[in-house]
From TrEMBL:
Name of the protein in question: HTH araC/xylS-type domain-containing protein
Species per Swiss-Prot/TrEMBL record: Chryseobacterium ginsengisoli
SUPFAM superfamilies: Homeodomain-like (SSF46689)
Gene3D superfamilies: Homeodomain-like, Tetratricopeptide repeat domain
Keyword set, alphabetical order: DNA-binding, Membrane, Transcription, Transcription regulation, Transmembrane, Transmembrane helix
InterPro entries: Homeodomain-like_sf, HTH_AraC, TPR-like_helical_dom_sf
Transmembrane segments: 332-351
PANTHER family: ARAC-FAMILY TRANSCRIPTIONAL REGULATOR
Pfam families found in the cross-reference section: HTH_18 (PF12833)
Length: 520
């Protein structure tokens, strides 16, 4: 038991809430909350009981325990003196549950009801906060349905937030913290949702919150990572890559003080992208590799966590056969009794825009793999046709066409033999294999393969590992370093660079999408 005896007065109960319930409650707080609810019931302290149930409701929602959540909502609604503010919150909870279960129409009705309750709150600040909370949820609801409604609700949220009073320093910090998150989301709308992208309309929102670094330093420090991510992404899209690097480096410096690998991952991606645009190949390679390694580690952790959740679910089913727990792994973005923080959109909208481009590249690679499978038996004939039809348009070489065909045939056998996987492969070695001197071989590779020797070998190796990953799921479980060694690269760093050069994708991204399609 959490305590040997229940607190007996209102003062004791409030003291226990303050002392023993964490600011961001977790499942570890469930038993403590149940005891405080029981203690409140014993002395007929309705506010104490409702407070505990609202916190419990938030925890059960985050656990995706919708059956328990709905029962708890019904219990709270039947209580006396719940108030319009909490009724608004309960309607939002119901909306999120309905949306998670695919009941979109019911979810929208819940939000409309939540807005009615919010507008009926008598206290002005309470009314503005609750209304802003509902508009934030409406923005989430309309995200993939109506871009115009999404923006409209974000703007309505901002209007409500600007009405909040700032008589005390605490009220001022709370107000501008919420405005920061809203502004980032509106900026993200103009960069990641509206077509074409509107950098001009996004700029005042991003740079406005960045100016808080001097005008509202406490607010900035409390929201530094969200601001820096948003502004960094803005500068990347704008093409100001030096500013992007500045933001990304500050993200990494701050992340060292408050460890969070997702922030680090974001910083690595910004640095890889911006250095790629600046043609800083060494730095681009460095951060691409760091990104790939960290992303692999996070994916591995995620897999283990999913495994634990499955084990826990199986255990729960065995213990409670009548429990119809719905675990669809959708995150409910709610904070108890107040404002919804939708800062995860600042990451999500960035990646959504980027992932559209990556998805196109991914499907191009898959299409190419499928086409190569269809043409695998005719590769020699195709090479011979190309040699006859294209040689005239390229640099002439002092070697007969018949000799070129013979060399190409030997190169074709070389490709089929997979000898390109040898780590010590070299131009002289291949020239000896093809029975031609290195100068002629280099020219043939340039004319017929549209590549230099290193590019030609790297292309073969990457195509080999692409095929393995596509056809053999076991390869998707291997580390990047193993994949690099498997296809003949001396290091993981060189492998990642070559992979991205050939596909415009990182190995991690390609593997993630293959796995996702396998599950689907």
């Amino acid at each position: 038991m959490y305590c040997q005896q229940y607190p007996k007065t209102v003062k004791d109960i409030e003291s226990q809430y303050k002392k023993n319930i964490s600011k961001y409650p977790t499942p570890n707080d469930i038993e403590k909350l149940k005891e405080l609810i029981t203690a409140s019931d014993k002395i007929d302290y309705k506010e104490g009981a409702i407070k505990g149930k609202m916190i419990l409701l938030n925890i059960y929602n985050e656990l995706s325990d919708y059956k328990t959540s709905l029962a708890l909502i019904k219990e709270i609604e039947s209580s006396d003196s719940v108030g319009n503010g909490r009724m608004s919150s309960l309607s939002i909870f119901k909306s999120n549950i309905n949306k998670a279960m695919g009941l979109d129409k019911e979810a929208l009705k819940n939000l409309q009801k939540a807005l009615q309750y919010a507008k009926s709150v008598s206290d002005p600040d309470g009314r503005h906060i609750k209304s802003a909370q509902v508009y934030a949820n409406l923005a989430l609801y309309y995200d993939s349905k109506s871009p115009n409604a999404l923006l409209s609700n974000l703007q309505k949220e901002l209007y409500e937030l600007k009405q909040l009073s700032e008589k005390t320093s605490e009220e001022k910090i709370t107000k501008y913290t919420k405005i920061v998150l809203n502004n980032i989301n509106i900026g993200n709308y103009y960069l990641g949702v509206v077509k074409p992208m509107r950098l001009d309309l996004a700029e005042p929102y991003y740079l406005g919150v960045y100016s808080y670094k001097t005008s509202q330093p406490i607010v900035f420090e409390n929201n530094a990572m969200n601001i820096l991510k948003g502004v960094g992404r803005f500068y990347l899209e704008k093409g100001d890559y030096h500013k992007t690097i500045e933001m990304a480096n500050e993200i990494l410096v701050r992340e060292k003080q408050n460890r969070n690998p997702t922030h680090r991952l974001f910083g690595f991606q910004l640095l890889a992208d911006s250095n790629e645009e600046l043609k800083n190949s060494k730095e681009q390679a460095k951060y691409t590799l760091l990104y790939a390694k960290l992303n692999d580690s996070l994916n591995l952790i995620a897999k283990k966590e999913v495994g634990k959740e499955v084990d826990q679910l199986i255990t729960t089913v065995k213990k409670e056969k009548d429990n119809e727990h719905n675990s669809n792994l959708k995150t409910i973005l709610l904070l108890v009794g107040g404002f919804i923080i939708i800062f995860t959109l600042s990451i999500w909208w960035y990646w959504r825009n980027k992932n559209r481009k990556l998805k196109i590249k991914y499907h191009e690679v898959i299409k190419k793999l499928n086409e190569e499978s269809d043409l695998s038996d005719t590769s020699l004939e195709i090479d011979e046709i190309n040699s006859e039809t294209e040689t005239e348009a390229k640099a002439p070489i002092k070697i007969s066409e018949d000799k070129v065909k013979i060399v190409l045939a030997r190169m074709n056998r070389f490709e089929k033999s997979k000898k390109f996987l040898k780590k010590d492969i070299s131009l002289p070695w291949l020239a000896n294999y093809a029975n031609v001197n290195t100068k002629y071989l280099s020219q043939i590779i340039r004319n017929e393969k549209d590549n230099n020797f290193n590019g030609y070998i790297n292309q073969l190796r990457i195509n080999y590992i692409l095929r393995k990953l596509y056809e053999s799921p076991v390869y998707r479980e291997y580390k990047i370093s193993y994949l690099a060694e498997e296809c003949g690269f001396a290091s993981a760093q060189v492998f990642v660079i070559a992979f991205k050069k050939e596909t415009d994708l990182t190995p991690s991204y390609f593997i993630q999408n293959l796995n996702a399609e396998s599950i689907a």
